[in-house]
Amino acid sequence: MDAADSAALTAPHPVPHPAPHPATLTEERREFRRALRDLLAERAGPHRNLVATATPRGYDPELWARLSATLGPATLGPAELAVACEETGRVLAPSPLLATRVLAAPLLTALGSPAQRAAHLPRIAAGSLTCALAVPGGALALALGLTGDNTADDWSGGGRAGGVQARPDGEGWRLYGEAAQVLDGHSAGLLLVAAHAGGYARSRTLLFLVRAEGADVPGLVRTRQPALDPTRPRATVQFRDTRAELLGAEPADVLGALAATGRSAAVMLAAEAVGAGRAALDRAVAHARSRAGSREAAAHRLADLSVQVEAARTLTYSAAGESGPGGPGPGFESGPLALAHALEALRATAEEALRPADAAAPFAGRAASDELLFGPVRGLRARAAERTGLFREVAA
């Protein structure tokens, strides 16, 4: 090994480290990040994650309670929520954050009646209520409008056999059918269920609430399924004449609310992937420093990966509304594109970290699991191009 090779990986910082981002510049936000990092250092990590995911709930209730207290209101701002997701992604912490705060809380806020919001949002903020969004057929990415137009496909059953059907019973509603790949569906205390109502001729997709707290809910069967990423527990949920409550009131733009939630969720998923990608890259750097022999090629490879992760991070926080005047703002239109970049960065860094051994396997599992559930990457990019009018500009 010559002097240049040695210097490449024995210097204090062999690859670029992230510069302070606008999302972390305020002292209040710095303190928020420090509080999250301290909590996760205490309650999360490879061993604690393994123990937590092996429990019936699939997460550490104490960590969730303390994390909820740190996060505060269920309507936490997008930049702060992105910081929280980046930090939990960095340690792959199993928690109901994604299913409860990122997916369910915005739908409750957008569509819920005043009584429903008053009943559920304070409990979500306190960490005493967890939620899950259940859509039929494992079509979560499409239902959220991430990989296609959720108004143009019968992802929820179309009123025919299959999917989840809702029928009025005089006192409320009853649900019939099955939803697969439901994040935290085995343990959530409140299910938000996308179902078809009105039969084939007048079918429309509505959202329903199923109160699932307690050991035995009549007509509700929940089965936890094996997962590539144990920190993302999933379940198959069956509804057999299950009592449900309509979320909000008709008429409501349910599909529009799902799509808006999907765009914001893409930003938070991207933030998680950025945190995980940086952690995987740090593992790869540590291994490269310890190796004997020529290191120049490894240094260049790791530098390229660091640039990829930081580019994804910049795009993620821009999508969260931190780019200033003229930027994407809180509309999250670039969320799916940020998610595509972040998932690619996570996949690449996880593969690099896996070179020495399987210690980084959880990062590879997270990358594969998220792309299967919320991708594929090409679908995210195509949908982002469609929404921003890129195809129309090229055609013109």
UniProtKB/TrEMBL annotation:
Superkingdom classification of source: Bacteria
Keyword Cytoplasm: no
Ranges for domain Acyl-CoA dehydrogenase/oxidase N-terminal: 26-127
SUPFAM superfamilies: Acyl-CoA dehydrogenase C-terminal domain-like (SSF47203), Acyl-CoA dehydrogenase NM domain-like (SSF56645)
Residue ranges, annotated region (Disordered): 1-25
Pfam families linked: Acyl-CoA_dh_N (PF02771)
Keywords annotated in UniProt: FAD, Flavoprotein, Oxidoreductase
Alphabetical list of InterPro entries matching this protein: Acyl-CoA_Oxase/DH_mid-dom_sf (IPR046373), AcylCo_DH-like_C (IPR036250), AcylCoA_DH/ox_N (IPR013786), AcylCoA_DH/ox_N_sf (IPR037069), AcylCoA_DH/oxidase_NM_dom_sf (IPR009100)
Protein name: Acyl-CoA dehydrogenase family protein
Taxonomic lineage from the root: Bacteria, Bacillati, Actinomycetota, Actinomycetes, Kitasatosporales
